[in-house]
Amino acid sequence: MINLQGVSLQRGARELLLSADCRIFPGHKVGIIGANGCGKSTLFQLLLGQLESDAGQVDLPNTWRIAHMAQEVEASDQPALDYVLDGDRALRQLQKQLAAAESCSDTDGHELAELHERMASIDGYSGPARAAQLLSGLGFSHTEQQRPVHSFSGGWRIRLNLARALMCPADLMLLDEPTNHLDLDATLWLEQWLQRFPGTLLMISHDRDFLDAVVDGIVSFERQKLVFYSGNYSAFERARAERLAQQQLQYEKQRAERAHMEDFVRRFRAKASKAKQAQSRLKALDRMARIAPAHVDSPFQFTLPCAEKTSNPLVDLREADIGYTGKVVVHKVQLGIQPGRRIGLLGPNGAGKSSLIKTLAGQLPPLSGERQCGEHLAIGYFAQHQLEALDTAASPLLHLQRLSTDASEQSLRDFLGGYGFVGDRVFETVAGFSGGEKARLALAILAWQKPNLLLLDEPTNHLDLEMRHALTLALAEFSGAVVLVSHDRHLLANTADEFILVADGRAEPYSGDLEEYKQWLLGYNREKKRRGETTPDTAGDNTGPVGDKKTQRRTAAALREQWKPLAKKLKTLEHQLSSAEKQLSQTREKLADESLYSGGQHEEIARLNQVQTEQSERLAALELEWLETSEQLEALRGE
To answer: Which InterPro entries match (predicted)?
Structure first.
């Protein structure tokens, strides 16, 4: 058992923990959450014995083997596979002893047999195969597994550190933001691996869906204390929302936040135009309204302004071959981005999602075909390397002043405050910022330029849960178009109205939801592995065999035939809802006209009141029918 009693810890002038208590029992999987800088990584240093607490006691079993994920990798000529194998120290030590014994002519046969027996007892002979499987699951091809460590970029080196931690036989595993540099298929693979891990797991993560799937407890840093919540992250949100709801000082803010979100859900319900995604989006938005109280004390509150002028389409790809010199990654792309369109790009690792976004952004010209831009196109592009483009010698305030020389300092400071840069933080240089702070600044710079098309490639890397929540809300209300690549399923579900699947050299509409995509991806990668192709092995213990492709297509076609009547009805109801809302609005405008009450129009007033009552009842009935139809369609799709 891990037992913290009365632990206090101060780093510099900042008090991270004050008389904090926490118990974690063997075999539990616990998510560690809290704002950036609150002390999550420092807690791991305490458990690893790298730090001493200022007061209190930190106890854990002396016999426990601890695996942890390092955040830095030294460049070396060592092959990636060997680097990961080094994670199992007992195996590597035994390999050295065995090699020395076999090379020595004087070695006793009994000693050699004992070494081989010890190797078998720790399953050492399968070590290289296990290391290769870990690397494959995290996106490394067979060829890449033999490449030297120094040849990989920073993000891929972090993946190597993760694989090395997973390679270590452990009673306690400490993982610090393991999904930060993973794409969705590698995240799903890791999710399944950790679900099967038999030891105790402590994991710092800002991915709520990942936490939901893996952990059975949450430890939250709250006012220098460690507060334990049973259940996954969703259970934590509900429990914390209920607790905050009882605090009188937060009551008014909570009520206003809920009312705002519920109003947004209602407006979306009446105006949703994408029948295939409408029910999933409505459920996600409704959940956002329910969990809003859990985030009422978030330091981040901002909007994403949109350009006043727009074009239709904003950008249009026609028969575009996308890729690099000598290599086409995605063939014959037909994609027009209209104002208000909200697209999530799905697809396996390396299929071309980032290349497609770069082509839309104009940073990667199509190899053939056309890219046409609207007259008033204003792109806000957040790339995976966006943080590297920041001027490390400049402050957040100076970054914005360079963009708007006429803007007042106070207006810029007010704007930056929504992204967590308050007080003197706006004058500090970027060089001293954490990854999360740099990501927040990059988003602030993007928002300040008022784009009408947001192209976002993994925007949540380095962002904590509160900032991700604020970004999700801001994107939900952004009036421009959005194209998004993200491993954060919560962000995808709450932002995208439709999905495009990028796979096998094609970019085509995908009619399923994210849960269906998860199953598709598992089957896709399993089939790739069966054919010997270099795609990450994401298969889990409970996944079944891949069916014949013709059978799959026939099954999918049969399901679509069953969905069509309900989907058609849903679209009709959406048009009726829009019309009914417009009629009710017109009636209310007439009743609000002061000239109506100047005298002698009592019958007209009575008539309009009666019409308003009938229209309100019709609108309520249509909304109810829309919800019932959505639920029927969702249930059918889940069969």
So the answer is: AAA+_ATPase, ABC_tran_Xtn, ABC_transporter-like_ATP-bd, ABC_transporter-like_CS, ABCF, P-loop_NTPase
* Residue from 378, 394, 384 nearest 452 by CA: 378
Query: Could you tell me the CA-to-CA distances from 495 to 278, 422, 429, 482, 498 in Å, in that order?
Result: 12, 28, 32, 8, 9
**CATH, range 315-512:** 3.40.50.300
Q: Can you give the residue ranges of every domain in the chain?
A: 1-64+171-235, 247-295, 315-512, 550-637
Q: Does residue 596 contact residue 627 with C-beta atoms inside 8 Å?
A: no
Q: What is the DSSP letter of 79?
A: B
What gap in Å lies between CA 11 and CA 224, rounded to an integer? 12
Q: Which of 352, 371, 350, 368 is nearest to 360 (CA)?
A: 371
- List the helix and strand counts (H, then E) for the chain: 20, 18
Task: For the domain made up of 1-64+171-235, give the CATH fold.
Answer: Rossmann fold (3.40.50)
| Cis previous bond, 313, omega within 30 | yes
Contact between residue 203 and residue 32 where contact means Cβ atoms under 8 Å apart: yes
User: How many whole angstroms separate alpha carbon 222 and alpha carbon 556?
Assistant: 48
Pure H helices in 376-434: 396-403, 409-417
Structure tokens at 328: 């086409």
On whether the CB atoms of residues 81 and 146 are closer than 8 A, the answer is: yes
Q: Per DSSP, what are the bridge partners of residue 419? A: none
Residue 455 predicted with pLDDT over 90: yes
Nearest CA among 335, 341, 339 for reference residue 355: 335
Distance between CA 122 and CA 108 in Å, rounded? 22
pTM for the model: 0.62
Q: What is the pLDDT of residue 423?
A: 86
pLDDT in tens, 13-41: 778 888 889 999 889 999 998 877 788 88
Chain centroid offset of residue 633 CA: 26
Give yes or no on whether 1-64+171-235 and 315-512 have one common fold.
yes
